[in-house]
Amino acid sequence: MRPLHVDGHQPPGMLGIFAEVDAAALAIERLRAAGMKRIVVFTPVPRHELEHALHAPESPVRLFTLVGGLTGAATGFALTIWTSLDWPLVTGGKPIVSLPPYVVIAFELTILFGALSTVLGLLINARLPRARRMVVYDPSFSAGRFGVFVAPPAGREPEAAAILRESGAVELRERPVEIHVGTL
Q1: Helices (H), 34-127
Q2: How far apart are CA 85 and CA 96, in angstroms?
Q3: pLDDT tens string 90-103
Q4: pTM of the full predicted structure?
Q5: What is d(CA 151, CA 29) in angstroms, rounded to the nearest whole number?
Q6: How confident is the model over 117-133, as pLDDT tens digits?
Q7: Strands 14-18 and 178-180: what pairing?
Q8: How far apart are the first and last CA of the chain?
Q9: For residue 43, which of 130, 137, 179, 172 has the smallest C-alpha distance?
């Protein structure tokens, strides 16, 4: 998904400020029903009603963790088997390649690779680090208000504004001004 801001300081879209979570959830559902998918929500606290209305897809970070963990397990077994075969040490007639002791190394590398790939997946999917991030924000979002920012397709701005107003927006800003994240 493309970022919601353009080269200027005013993103194409509108920001509706709501006093009630139910009104914000209704606005999100109506915007999605109208085919507008580029929606960002600002809340003072996490609310399951808004998450449900957004229909957010499942995070792909867990796939990074799975692939990293499986790679770590395979690497752990490959490393220990290769080491045992390259420098064979026969003790008491036991086999050179014996899997039970290698499980410990494979387990440790599973955890290590899984954790590192989880962090990598988080950074990739969150598109971090962002050198210069601008966001649409209003201080009232920290004081109990809910914000719904929508970037409608070209020519459908009046429809999006009408949906936000009809859903109960206390205030509606078209092309709101962005601020630097660090200046909050």
Answers
A1: 48-54, 61-86, 99-125
A2: 7
A3: 888 888 998 999 99
A4: 0.68
A5: 15
A6: 999 999 999 888 766 55
A7: unpaired
A8: 25
A9: 137
